[in-house]
Amino acid sequence: MMSMKTSKTAVVQHVLTMEEWNVRQIHELLTRANEFADMKRERTTLPLYAANLFFEPSTRTKLSFEAAEQNLGLGILHFDAATSSVKKGESLYDTVRTLESIGADVVVIRHEQERYFDELRDFINIPIINGGDGCGHHPTQSFLDLMTIQQEFGRFAGVKVVIAGDIRHSRVARSNVEVLERLGAKVYVSGPKEWMDEAMSSRFIPMDEAVEVADVMMMLRIQHERHTVQLIAGPNDYHEAYGLTVERTQRMKDKSIIMHPAPINRGVEIADELVEGSRSRIFKQMTNGVYVRMAVLDHVLRQAKGGDWK
Amino acid sequence: MMSMKTSKTAVVQHVLTMEEWNVRQIHELLTRANEFADMKRERTTLPLYAANLFFEPSTRTKLSFEAAEQNLGLGILHFDAATSSVKKGESLYDTVRTLESIGADVVVIRHEQERYFDELRDFINIPIINGGDGCGHHPTQSFLDLMTIQQEFGRFAGVKVVIAGDIRHSRVARSNVEVLERLGAKVYVSGPKEWMDEAMSSRFIPMDEAVEVADVMMMLRIQHERHTVQLIAGPNDYHEAYGLTVERTQRMKDKSIIMHPAPINRGVEIADELVEGSRSRIFKQMTNGVYVRMAVLDHVLRQAKGGDWK
Amino acid sequence: MMSMKTSKTAVVQHVLTMEEWNVRQIHELLTRANEFADMKRERTTLPLYAANLFFEPSTRTKLSFEAAEQNLGLGILHFDAATSSVKKGESLYDTVRTLESIGADVVVIRHEQERYFDELRDFINIPIINGGDGCGHHPTQSFLDLMTIQQEFGRFAGVKVVIAGDIRHSRVARSNVEVLERLGAKVYVSGPKEWMDEAMSSRFIPMDEAVEVADVMMMLRIQHERHTVQLIAGPNDYHEAYGLTVERTQRMKDKSIIMHPAPINRGVEIADELVEGSRSRIFKQMTNGVYVRMAVLDHVLRQAKGGDWK
């Protein structure tokens, strides 16, 4: 049943997908994130609140937003989907309107339904930050990937990025392909043929070539919980055939790096000993995640409250 | 098993039921809530803590208290009933005494057992605020209803309020009847005959008349999770027979308003398009909920800590 | 599968077991806890974060740490094991490294696996405080027990402590025996013979003698959830045979006290009316728990950040 809603009263800027950000805006966001990385924290003294609505399990994203919010001095309204009125059948829209009425100034949502935000974006008067919609979009993950690459190479133009794993089922991966190419990077995809996308076939490169070409090996997580991987043999076989093995990394270029969004299946998509090796930027990505989320919160609050919102 | 407890050492004022508040006290509380609405926040610099014990799902009430507590500058001790020692069989009394010992200055409790507070009130040395006891009392919900009516009409005397829905199983409804009449309002009840109370029969009015008489249509939520509604036909039939339909609202008086405690079953007790219509004060009620909870917290902390507690 | 990890870069002091604390260090910690008890709070203005990882139900310990952390002005990163990526199979090590990357300055962990910390201690660069490892260690519980005894008697030398209950399955009990004897106390154990330890047999004393000898009756909780107590008869029989009955306490010495780590099975290991009687220090223990946790946090942050960390 579609619900009747009131259109929002003013132009509110949400952060929902990377497609909605142009190149200039992306660079501005990354500049702000790097400023936060340098000085780290800048707390508002205003009584402003962020509401975090997480309908799916998430360690990294939820805690990263909580750290970013506290770094900015925002109060947090903790919404626990497991004990909420959603159990009483309340719609997502009514839940968000409730948070708005209670005093949330910004809301972060992670929800298993792809594009859950389409039914919200024109009706909610506070900024929505998408913390992940099912297999769909995850803009703050993309931003932290971009920040990490930019930190390493100082540019995107000409940087060769191999995204390896389940491309077909990962819209985040496809979204990264799109934005990296817009920024000037050369993007390849790798992994089992069954997991490749028709539209991506021109970008395909086998793993053994990939490691020699790549400046960045961006490994994807095998998402056991989202789809069966019965097509593929056991974890060891997968690792040998398509994973980042120690042997393969020995053929990587001197300055090449390894990225992974985590949580990691050690020994499957990436060899155990590489996770914290010298090429790995995996934990650096997590640290950057806090800074890009601070920058995203800062961005939407500037729009909503005025440039001097703090 | 009854437990032996130590009587509390001083007079502590709890907020448990509306029956315990006289007319003067109610007006004072509403005045304070309106002051908070105007200036919104006034934070203590003292290290004071509120512990929130929610044994039942609740979005609105829990988040509303958390917002109110943070608005006042209180620290929060988050008690998650699902992962607590209550699982090890600890009594509610021992749990609350524990929170008191750990440093809570006030405790908010929502519990499925009606009058759970009777075994606590004479023994706990910090103020207890009842956040709802089963089908029993919910004083902060009553206060926010009163605040919303007073904002609209500037008075209670002579205001005609129709409470519509499951009167029999809602002590909150019956509690609202009692307090509204004490404050001078004229109260009617409406809904299916099976859901009416013997004692309420003199106040009964059919829905089609109700909409023409009411200044306030106070709709109750059909609580699917609390009792079966097999007596009643399907949701559409219920809506036609007893719900607030678009057609019925067209016969409402010019300045009449619609209220609902939420969460809402859109299309059952109230038509979807009315929820955010011009007559609706439903989301306003939620905003007022934060202010009355600030006023209630302020009230009990004044009693416990002295008038200048902040 | 063992994971490859990077050794930590600096000497980080964790708080994992009492065995690692010498007598001088213990006294220093207790002195600091008593200072916190006197002035109660001293908040940092730095943006520092404590991450709390609780994989097991716990009211007291979790809330006590949260109160201690807020008293010191630390921000809190709430890690909810039930909704975390641990569900996606992430290792404890990777989870803690994630929290470190996100900005946690100290991490408190409670985990059902005994000595879970052995796989972390040499690799994690922020202090780990053990909030309990299965039936293993629980150093902050030991510290609060020691603080409570010291407050009462001003010393440990010669104080006669009877620990009564399931000694065999409680490493915390055995750990308390060890540390109390190191501090000069005379320790006895009591309870059902089936629950005694070979190594403890020289310390055994029957309950009826125990109450006459003890300065401190330290009752253990019957942990229904950890092991079956089928060996033992019903709760009433247990109470009569091995519990602290009202009759038995009448034979206790004038200044003797009763302790219990809680949650309490009223009427089983201790008579209901004794829980809040004049000899009981049970709720005092909980209050002290906040102070020792403040002292432990202060201790590790001094090591990690320098003596003037605030």
UniProtKB/TrEMBL annotation, chains A, B, C:
UniProt keyword Transferase, yes or no: yes
Segments forming domain Aspartate/ornithine carbamoyltransferase carbamoyl-P binding: 13-151
Residue ranges constituting the Aspartate/ornithine carbamoyltransferase Asp/Orn-binding domain according to the UniProt record: 158-299
Highest taxon of the lineage: Bacteria
Binding residue positions for carbamoyl phosphate: 60-61, 110, 138, 141, 262-263
UniProtKB keywords: Pyrimidine biosynthesis, Transferase
InterPro entries for the chain: Asp/Orn_carbamoyltranf_P-bd, Asp/Orn_carbamoylTrfase, Asp/Orn_carbamoylTrfase_sf, Asp_carbamoyltransf, Asp_carbamoyltransf_Asp/Orn-bd
Statement: the UniProt record of this protein carries the keyword Membrane: no
Binding site for L-aspartate: 88, 171, 221
Pfam families for this protein: OTCace, OTCace_N
GO cellular component: cytosol
GO molecular function: amino acid binding; aspartate carbamoyltransferase activity
Subunit structure comment from the entry: Heterododecamer (2C3:3R2) of six catalytic PyrB chains organized as two trimers (C3), and six regulatory PyrI chains organized as three dimers (R2).
Family: Belongs to the aspartate/ornithine carbamoyltransferase superfamily. ATCase family.
Name of the protein this chain belongs to: Aspartate carbamoyltransferase
